[in-house]
Inverse folding.
């Protein structure tokens, strides 16, 4: 592993730019460009791959496209990349939230997608379906054994700051974590946080899975008493010690609903309506 200016060479032709969002590079391909536009422009990338439709993973995509790069993204994520307002509206059941309700991670410049990953082919970079964080979330594995996981894996150090990582489908998050472990990559570059050596990935995956189980158990505990959705959200956020802000709250709403839906699917909780309120109860 060697470092030159902001870029760190990992293996063969695969490098990455450590940052608030880690950005990958291989040959003329960039993955998840963050905010460091000048660095990426020097790469003269012909292709920019985007793992998913959260704006912090395509911060510089519009700039790079104007400079001549083609943008390749998962089909299910394209509408959010082209218009970040779609994701923001989705978060608020398609009504219009106020600015303070929206995390800055969802705000950014939209960028046209030129090609979907399911149509894209590269002999040296494999697309890996890693949904659960979002519906079409996709990782990328380079021929040099480097796996870019976007937000599918939250490495251990991130959990202190993010005790309830965003997810829309907890069962799919679990499947994706299993896939990350099974690929046996030499290096794992998560979207955020420290680089992971291949032999350490099992520990990070197991930690993520254990945290998912602990969150499910804590939620199920709250549902021993029939709870409204609002009470379930408040109870879980308090248990996990989440920061209180309108933006954090609305992020948590989606993720808590994902966990509630998972409990329903596992048939360990039920949902009913009484007095025009929705209730959840452990079975
Ligand atoms: Zn994300």
């Amino acid at each position: 592993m060697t470092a030159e200016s902001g870029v760190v060479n990992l293996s063969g032709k695969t490098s990455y730019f450590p940052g608030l969002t880690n950005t990958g590079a291989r040959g003329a391909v960039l993955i998840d460009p963050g905010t460091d536009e000048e660095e990426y422009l020097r790469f003269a990338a012909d292709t920019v791959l985007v793992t998913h439709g959260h704006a912090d993973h395509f911060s510089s995509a519009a700039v790079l496209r104007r400079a001549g790069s083609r943008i390749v993204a998962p089909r299910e994520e394209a509408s959010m990349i082209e218009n970040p307002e779609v994701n923001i509206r989705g978060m608020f059941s398609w009504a219009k939230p106020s600015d303070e309700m929206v995390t800055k991670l969802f705000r950014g410049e939209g960028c046209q997608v030129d090609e979907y990953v399911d149509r894209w082919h590269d002999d040296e970079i494999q697309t890996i379906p890693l949904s659960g964080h979002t519906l079409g979330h996709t990782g990328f594995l380079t021929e040099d054994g480097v796996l870019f996981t976007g937000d599918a894996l939250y490495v251990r150090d991130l959990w202190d700051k993010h005790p309830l990582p965003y997810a829309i489908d907890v069962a799919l998050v679990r499947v994706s974590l299993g896939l990350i472990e099974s690929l046996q990559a030499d290096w794992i570059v998560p979207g955020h946080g420290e680089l992971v050596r291949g032999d350490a990935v099992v520990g990070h995956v197991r930690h993520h899975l254990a945290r998912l189980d602990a969150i499910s158990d804590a939620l199920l505990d709250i549902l021993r008493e029939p709870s409204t959705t609002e009470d379930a959200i408040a109870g879980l956020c308090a248990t996990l010690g989440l920061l209180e802000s309108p933006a954090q709250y609305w992020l948590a709403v989606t993720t808590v609903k994902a966990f509630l839906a998972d409990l329903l699917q596992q048939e360990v909780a039920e949902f009913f309506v009484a007095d025009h309120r929705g209730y959840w109860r452990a079975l």
User: Anything to note?
Assistant: The mean pLDDT is 95. Helices lie at 37-41, 61-66, 78-82, 84-91, 170-182, 201-222, 229-240, 246-265.
